[in-house]
Amino acid sequence: MNDLLDAAYEAAAAVLRAAPRVVVAAHTDPDGDALGSLVGAVLGLRAAGIDTVGVRVAAELPRELRWLDPDQLATTAPAGDGWVLLAVDCGSEARIAAPAGVREGAALVVGVDHHHDNTCFADIDVVDPGAACAAMMVRHLLDRLGVALTPAIATPLYVGLVTDTGRFQYSNTDARAFAAAAELVDAGARPQEIFRRLYESVAAAKLVLLGRALARTEVRLGGRLAVTWLTLADVTESGADASATDGVIEQLRAIDGVEVAAFVRETGNGGGHKVSLRSAGGRVDVSAIARAGGGGGHARAAGFTSDRSRDDLLAFIEAEALSRGACTD
Ligand code: 5GP
Ligand code: MN
Q: What is the architecture of the domain spanning 3-199?
């Protein structure tokens, strides 16, 4: 760890230790790392004797994450003000999923994040693009606060680690990730049980929806771009919830020769769409495409939302993928 990052952790720990209250939030449409980091931070800070409230917005959570007990997270701002807002896994201020009043009532904002395009929006930014997941950063922070891991704290942190590393397969899976896994398992996280809950508690409707998306797969740019899409009607007819579309994009990225995978999903908010992007092989930085579309993310996993039509978005993605290096030889 370099000195600057070390100093940022130290500053964050000092502020949290002295805070009259800490409110923890993660990003919108929370994934395993967002929710795992959030729940892990809440339980860990409480173990350090810090008055802590976790918050989320009231939207539906992915079915496979509900067991993390999100009911303990508030969907309204606490009374009063003057708390420290701890934002985990958020690359920008706009990504923070906090009920009305939470941001306004914060005397200070601490950001703990691993996105390389983090905008440094907080008063204290602890940003480590080299960290495999935000959950590992929360673990470091808790370490500085002298928190001993318990099974209850280790479990959500392990969820963040296993999901953001693609079950220890993505390029961010380094020795530190395995060392963190060993520490969390030693502290009581149960890999097989967590695997079952995350990946083998699938609703049948989700497979039906996945089948529909896969059947529409289209390969463009001489095999380097794979795209597919789902409408709101597809989701409704399948009987699945919106989060059931998680995982579609990973299937597309697996196609031999594909460098960019894109999945366009109608969200229903005034005809809006959510675009998910993945890079295979690492030649194309898909976060650059996402930023051009108004979003952001990691070099190999990024996304944005847009009011443009599906055809418009597919043409935009194709042009962007082409100009950013897919299909250059
Ligand atoms: P997913 O495709 O799984 O929804 O998102 C992959 C990653 O892209 C997320 O972890 C997040 O970093 C980023 N991402 C997705 N959607 C957005 C968005 O609308 N705005 C920004 N800034 N990042 C996004
Ligand atoms: Mn993350």
A: Alpha-Beta Complex (3.90)
Q: How far apart are the CA of 89 and the centre of ligand 2, in A?
A: 5
**Ligand 1 close to Cβ of residue 306 (< 6 A):** no
- In DSSP terms, 263 is beta-bridged to 228, 276
Q: Is 115 in the pocket of ligand 1 (CB under 6 A)?
A: yes
Q: How far is the CA of 301 from the centre of ligand 1 (A)?
A: 7
Beta carbons within 10 angstroms of residue 132's beta carbon = 25
SS3 50: coil
Domain 204-323 CATH (choose: 3.10.310.30, 3.40.50.740, 1.10.1060.10, 3.30.70.270): 3.10.310.30
Distance CA 210, CA 205 (A): 9
Where exactly are the structural domains of the chain? 3-199, 204-323
Query: Does the Cβ of 95 fall within 6 Å of ligand 1?
Result: yes
Length of the chain: 329
> What pLDDT, in 10s, does the model give residues 127-145?
999 999 999 999 999 999 9
Q: What is the pTM (predicted TM-score) of this model?
A: 0.93
